[in-house]
Design brief:
The complex is a heterotrimer of chains A (about 800), B (about 425) and C (about 170). By secondary structure, chain A is α/β, with parallel strands linked by helices. Chain A has 26 helices and 32 strands. In chain A, the strands form 8 sheets. Chain A has a 7-stranded mixed β-sheet with strand order 14-13-24-23-22-15-16. In chain A, strands 28-30-29-32-27-31 form a 6-stranded mixed β-sheet. Chain A has a 5-stranded mixed β-sheet with strand order 2-1-5-3-4, sandwiched between helices. In chain A, helix 8 crosses helix 23, helix 12 packs across helix 14 and helix 12 packs parallel to helix 16. Chain A is globular. The model of chain A has no long low-confidence stretch (mean pLDDT about 95). Chain C has about 170 residues and is an alpha+beta fold. Chain C folds into 2 domains: about 80 residues; about 80 residues, 3-Layer(aba) Sandwich (Glutaredoxin). The radius of gyration of chain C is 18 Å and the shape is elongated. The chains are: A alpha/beta (about 800), B alpha/beta (about 425), C alpha+beta (about 170).
Chain lengths: ~800, ~425, ~170
């Protein structure tokens, strides 16, 4: 710590700080453009020049370290003269087209020029003009406005892990851009909109939609992955106009993913369900809430009376709030049904009750020095978790990526191991065996049947040793592992390895599923952890029940086995859906539709991978007749004449659950030990949810659907060996046959896909016509004539 | 008085660049002696300090002091980098040193590497110097064959590798941190200092960057002693120095003369002002140093301190001589264009300000000047000066400020009469 | 004309064998993991093997070869004046017009060249033989006025000397 003085105010600050950081902490304003607390320091804009005693010229506050006894003057004549000079230079080539600039009203250049600029320009030469570049559907460029602060360039290099933007040319002719026009490929690209201090990079979907001063800002929480990024929703006249990042150092720092930023565009989609509707004699009728809810409750009561309550099942989207999840299961359980689940894409639940939802802060992940990604395409599953892993890698952390295919993680990776299902178990047991050699006989004995005879390979030993020797290690089990038909075995081996190495185990939750878990939206236990014997998400479809209650899901996109789900729904006697969106298939099998508010329109609570409870309120009123989920469920409880549904706010729901959870003991659960591993023969489908197909709101955002990430929705990726075996070539049409279902896809030969696996996009129109997302498939080349 | 005693000491020989020529003047003897006797690093630094050798690239920083900043015993990679990115208008000495005496640069670099604890060196030579690069590469082959480079040099246990790295046309790479960026394969954009290269240099490792002439002086200093070198020049301004005499002189050329020589004498060596014309002004240290009017210049001694007293800088010793026929507006326009063209674009005052300066001066030269232009030029130059990441901003501002200061009347005449004071508009400059 | 270079595909197939050897030799001059340092020498080599200019494909292939982002190569290629991003003539004439050359008559040399070749600065003769460039100080001020013809400096120029020089060029 050192003692300094800024503008006469004595401060005691960390000696590693720069002047600007000390000033920021003390609330002393120093103007700046290039400096950003979460990016490297370049000192190129020169706006933060201040006077420092004993220095013969003004110094940049962002790049001058504090020193004991230092006296800084931010408002002295020397400082102001330097700052005014810089401001004049910044403005001479700036178009000053504020009236038609989207940044107007929130432009750092505009703001500062009020304080430091001159009313009259002394520059009478020609101004620079720069041609705009098309860099994709999300970010609009107006590069003549660029002041070359390079925040966007540094963001790509340091945070997104992909240097797409650069500064080409030199001097006055230096231009920020991609040099060759192309769409940005980063899933974090929208952050450059927030970062750009001027109107050079703005939101393309938001262009010319509203002025900064017309909008009101509401804090919110993103619901699309398990990070729970903090958002600010900017609204005007009851409409969300755009979404920007809200700083929260412990969660998302200054960043949000493009998915969190642009999903709001789905809110106004024409498929939005706006009125309660009931189907009578095969005809859909718009009705009022009372009628629709009575219709729904009657329908379920009828099934209960006739077929028993265990013929009713409820499935809820992992993007639902804690409160919605809690009320959903409470209502269904009051009916007498335990068939409640939110784990829609999973199919192996043998380890239920042994769940390993251990919390880990994002900061701890970033400071880990060994990280294993297991079946986890982390960039699309949780972009800001990927950012933390990337920071660990930049700091020298060793990253091992074990997956069914190789993706570019945009970070230095120590090793990427591509395995098929069988090879995955060989690998995991090899890692475990390396470690078991060092533990007590009892543990070793309990797992012996899972180990193979052969000695562990060098890779297996290496992974084991890296985890064991790390200062802090973490194993992240991702969606592809959790959705695998033998997910329990994968998770249990990961849990064993974690126990033997002291590594944290992070079973990456899907969106808000950690909250839904706590809320008891599960078939095997409720919120008070009382054991139940309901049907899981898999069995619910397989058993083909009489009645289904869907909460904000599109089963053909959101479930592990679209074909089974659709079949069950079509055969059911009664289907009700509390949904934000409708589609043809839903109208086909459903009997009642209740319009649901989106997350921007309701209050609720999100619980992320760090187990932090983050509550938020609605920013706009739900459109049409749609209502917040907790209110719909409360009234359904009332109409069903159940006790305990007299909530007046979502906080009341939250409090009730919190009280229940507080009474629970936190007994540690044993690791599940699988009985055996079943071998998969033939070609196994591996369905991965693309980054912009995760939930119904995202799927209805037009701009996100236009990104390059969505161009492979009808592509099947296979290894060269598999292609050769079936006589398939690049670009061929291939028929994918699964039981009685067949679809046609385009072949992409990719040596980064594991042997005997066919990689396909899940949650796509094509995969909606198939069965088990990880089932066996038959491949055959299609003649061109039948392609159409 | 004997000239050419330091960097040009092989110049009188046939094929002055060969290993044989270099050996004949005592070349590589100092390196062999140091490696044989395992001379202490501190001893060498002390000798260089006592010689009063100052950086020959322009800044004039004491070389021994610079070397002493290196954490020479710190483990890990450290680098010695030679700056042969000669590009300051008026400067053309390093090209001749490399063309005619490359081995002396190599020996100087190996000794410097030994002294600062570096095991690897790079000579960054500007890309247009095709011939010097070839000469240097050839000399490297010879030095390697003679066992002066590589592992365990002359069985001393000292390892040192040396490579040549070409530039590709960017004046800014002569700035030492821009040079390091360029050497790392990036745009030549200067780094903000601190940290200085001695702490964070090439690839983030401790690095010393010295000019070609500086490094080539080292073997001679060690051979003849610090006092001998110091006494070649004047106190605090040790040695001989190459002056590039260009512009309006009868015998333009590179002259290696003692520091402190009166300018009048140096001008005489260069054959005097061409055609017997009257001297008007001199830019004594390269285009970035302030211009000095003839009367002051004729009283000035050619040393760091002497030229400093005259209100300018010795810089790289690049003496641009201008006679009475010179239009100062046109001369400044060309200099201003250079800094506009060579600004790297990284920081605001230089990126925006150099273009502004150039455009206003061009307008004045084109007869479009306005009354407020001169004060505005001074104001803009002052707003650049001292406010940029590197010295290019100052370099762009200094000529503008000094030209207008000393020749304001001539600029005013251009604005008032829309034509040139020294020549008829249609004749412009009168090339003798 | 040069034979076409391989610009796509596997790293060990890019360009041709001779160029790969040259690039590898440059990469070996820098510490492990610092192959980006070879960008400038590599761009010189590629430009010389590609009729004197750098195409986008050539630069992308170099980025692949050095395993660095393509934009990093574009940044370097657009920063340094020796790199040509459009086709140029068979011979490149770079005339210095900076202060020392200006004082010694570079305007006359430049005008003479432009008249003789019938092109302005930055242009290429119709027969594709010459490209004429105005350049900043080339570090031969005591030989002013001067020009660089391909890889050779020519100093103390006069219009007659320029004529003789152009006459010698094949």
């Amino acid at each position: 710590m050192v003692n300094i003085e800024i503008d006469g105010i004595p401060l005691r600050v960390d000696s590693a700080k720069m002047i600007i950081q000390a000033a920021d902490e003390a609330g002393i304003d120093i103007p700046r453009f290039c400096y950003h607390k979460n990016l490297s320091i370049v000192a190129n804009c020169r706006m933060c020049l201040v006077e420092v005693d004993k220095a013969r010229k003004a110094l940049p506050a962002c790049a001058t370290p504090v020193a004991n006894g230092m006296k800084v003057f931010t408002q002295s004549e020397i400082a102001l003269q330097a700052q005014r000079g810089v401001m004049e230079f910044l403005l001479i080539n700036h178009p000053l087209d504020c009236p038609i600039c989207d940044q107007g009203g929130e432009c750092e250049l505009q703001d500062l020029s009020l304080g430091y600029g001159s009313g009259i320009s002394r520059f009478s030469e020609k101004k620079r003009v720069v041609k705009d570049k098309d860099i994709g559907p999300l970010v609009q460029t107006d590069m003549t406005r660029c002041i070359h602060c390079t925040r966007c360039v540094r963001f790509g290099q340091e945070i997104a892990g992909i240097k797409e933007l650069g500064a080409t040319g030199r001097g006055e002719h230096m231009e920020i851009g991609t040099y060759v026009e192309h769409s940005l490929a980063s899933e974090l690209s929208g952050n450059i909109i927030d970062l750009c201090p001027v109107g050079a990079l703005t939101s393309k979907p938001f262009r010319y939609k509203a002025r900064a001063w017309e909008m009101t800002s509401h804090p919110s929480i993103a619901m699309h992955d398990a990070v729970g990024s903090n958002l600010d929703l900017h609204t005007r006249q009851n409409e969300v106009m755009r979404v920007v990042a809200r700083d929260n150092d412990s969660v998302n720092q200054s960043w949000i993913s493009d998915r969190d930023r642009f999903s709001y565009l789905g809110l106004k989609h024409p498929d939005r369900l706006l009125n309660p509707m009931i189907k009578q004699n095969g005809e859909w009728q718009v009705t009022d809430w009372q009628t629709a809810m009575e219709f729904a409750v009657d329908g379920l009561k009828h099934v209960k009376t006739k077929n028993g309550a265990d013929q009713i099942a409820g499935l809820i989207s992992p993007t639902a709030t804690l409160e919605e999840g809690y009320l959903f299961q409470k209502w269904l359980r009051a009916f007498g049904s335990q068939n409640v689940d939110h784990r829609l894409r999973q199919q192996d639940f043998s380890d239920a009750g042994h769940d390993q939802f251990s919390a880990m802060s994002l900061a701890d992940i970033e400071s880990s020095d060994a990280i294993v990604l297991l079946g986890c395409n982390i960039r699309s599953e949780a972009p800001l978790l990927a950012h933390r892993v990337r920071q660990s890698a930049y700091a020298g952390g060793l990253i091992s990526d074990i997956n069914f295919f190789k993706t570019d993680l945009l970070m230095p990776v120590d090793r990427q191991v591509v395995v098929n299902s069988a090879q995955l178990f060989v690998l995991l047991s090899g890692v475990a065996k390396t470690l078991l050699q060092r533990v007590d006989e009892t543990t070793a004995k309990a797992w012996r049947h899972m180990m193979r005879e052969k000695a562990p390979s060098a890779t297996e030993q290496n992974i084991a040793m890296q985890l064991a020797n790390a200062h802090q290690a973490v194993i992240i089990v991702g969606a592809l592992a959790n959705q695998h038909p033998q997910a329990s075995a994968i998770r249990s081996l990961a849990a064993l390895i974690s126990e033997l190495t002291g590594a944290h185990l992070l079973i990456l939750p899907d969106a808000n599923s950690q909250a839904l878990h706590l809320a008891g939206a599960l078939p095997h236990c409720d919120a008070s952890q009382e054991l139940k014997d309901g049907l899981n998400a898999n069995a619910i479809w397989e058993e083909q029940l009489r009645a289904y209650v869907l909460f904000n899901i599109e089963p053909e996109f959101d479930c592990a086995d679209p074909a089974a789900a659709l079949l069950a729904l079509q055969r059911a006697g009664f289907v009700m859906a509390i949904n934000s969106f409708q589609c043809d298939s839903l109208r086909d099998y459903a009997d009642v539709l209740l319009p649901l508010a989106a997350f921007t329109e309701t209050s609720g609570t999100f619980v992320g991978l760090d187990h932090q409870w983050q509550s938020f309120t609605g920013a706009v009123a739900p459109p049409g007749e749609s209502r917040p989920g907790w209110k719909i469920l409360r009234v359904l409880g009332n109409i069903s004449k159940f006790n305990g549904f007299d909530y007046v706010s979502s906080e009341g729901v939250r409090q009730e659950l919190q009280d229940q959870l507080n009474r629970l003991s936190s007994a540690r659960k044993s690791i599940y030990i699988p009985a055996e591993i079943t071998n998969v023969n033939g070609v196994q489908l591996i369905s991965e949810v693309p980054v912009y197909r995760t939930d119904s709101l995202v799927r209805h955002s037009k701009a996100l659907q236009l990104t390059p990430e969505n161009q492979f929705l009808d592509t099947m990726r296979i290894s060269p060996a598999l292609a050769e075996k079936y006589g398939l070539h690049q670009g061929d049409a291939v028929q994918i046959q699964q039981d009685e279902f067949a679809v046609s896809a385009t072949v992409l030969i990719d040596e980064q896909v594991a042997e005997n696996m066919a990689h396909l996009a899940a949650a796509s129109p094509l995969s909606a016509r198939l069965g088990n997302a990880f089932g066996n498939v038959e491949l055959s080349a299609m003649m061109e004539s039948i392609d159409a | 008085m004997q000239l050419d005693q330091v960097c040009f000491r092989t110049m009188h020989l046939d094929q002055p660049w060969s290993m044989e020529s270099y050996r004949s003047v005592g070349g590589y003897q100092m390196l062999e002696k140091i490696l044989r006797e395992k001379t202490r690093q501190e001893t060498i630094i002390e000798i260089i300090k006592n010689s009063a050798l100052r950086g020959r690239g322009g800044a004039g920083f004491p070389t021994g002091l610079k070397w002493s900043f290196m954490p020479r015993r710190m483990p890990g990679d450290k680098y010695i980098v030679c700056n042969s990115d000669e590009g300051e208008p008026g400067t053309c000495k390093d090209r001749d040193i490399i063309r005619f005496n490359p081995h002396q640069v190599i020996e100087g670099m190996i000794i410097a590497g030994y002294t600062i604890g570096a095991q690897r060196g790079y000579n960054y030579i500007r890309g247009e110097f095709f011939e010097p690069i070839e000469r240097f590469e050839q000399a490297l082959i010879e030095a390697r064959e003679a066992g002066y480079l590589g592992k365990n040099i002359l069985n001393s246990g000292f390892n040192f590798e040396l490579f040549c790295h070409p530039g590709a046309g960017a004046y800014i790479c002569g700035e030492e941190t821009a040079l390091l960026e360029s050497l790392e394969g990036k745009k030549g954009q200067p780094r903000y200092k601190p940290p200085f290269p001695a702490g964070y240099g090439l690839y983030g490792r401790p690095t010393t960057v010295n000019n070609t002439e500086t490094l080539a002086s080292v073997p001679v200093i060690l051979q003849h002693g610090a006092d001998w070198f110091h006494e070649l020049g004047t106190p605090n301004n040790g040695g001989q120095k190459i002056f590039c005499m260009s512009g309006h002189v009868n015998k333009p050329g590179n002259y290696e003369v003692p520091l402190g020589m009166p300018f009048a004498e140096l001008l005489e060596l260069a054959g005097g002002v061409r055609n017997g014309n009257k001297l008007k002004a001199v830019i004594p240290g390269g285009s970035s140093t302030p211009v000095v009017p003839a009367d002051v210049m004729m009283q000035t001694a050619m040393s760091y301190d002497g030229i400093g007293k005259a209100g300018s800088m010795l810089g790289a010793g690049s003496v641009i001589v201008m006679d009475e026929t010179t239009c100062m507006v046109k001369a400044l326009e060309r200099i201003a264009y250079f800094y506009y063209e060579e600004s790297c674009g990284q920081c605001t005052p230089c990126r925006e300000g150099t273009g502004w300066l150039y455009r206003v001066i061009k307008r004045i030269e084109d007869g479009q000047g306005r009354q407020e232009d001169l004060d505005r030029l001074i104001d803009v130059a002052n707003n650049i000066n001292g406010n940029t990441i590197c010295a290019l901003g100052d370099a762009a501002a200094a000529p503008v400020i000094s030209f207008i200061k000393h020749f304001r009347d001539e600029f005013q005449y251009h604005i008032d009469h829309k034509c040139c004071l020294v020549s008829e508009p249609e004749l412009k400059l009168n090339y003798g | 004309m040069t034979t076409a270079l391989q610009l796509t595909g596997h790293r060990d197939q890019l360009f041709n064998q001779v160029i790969r050897q040259q690039l590898d030799s440059w990469i070996s001059k820098y510490p492990p993991g610092q192959s980006q340092s070879a960008v400038i020498p590599a761009l010189h080599i590629l430009q010389d093997s590609h009729d004197g200019w750098l195409s986008e494909g050539l630069m992308r292939a170099l980025a692949d070869y050095l395993e660095i982002p393509a934009i990093s190569v574009f940044e370097v290629a657009t920063f340094y004046t020796m790199f040509e991003l459009k086709p140029v003539g068979k011979h490149k004439i770079s005339v210095c017009t900076n202060i020392s050359c200006l004082l010694c008559g570079s305007e006359e040399i430049a005008n003479h060249l432009q008249k003789r070749l019938g092109i302005g600065f930055g242009q290429t003769t119709a027969d594709g033989k010459f490209t004429l460039k105005e350049v900043e100080c080339l570090g031969a001020c005591v030989g002013a006025p001067m020009l660089l013809l391909d890889r050779q400096y020519h100093e103390h120029l006069t219009p007659d000397k320029v004529d003789a020089l152009l006459g010698e060029v094949k």
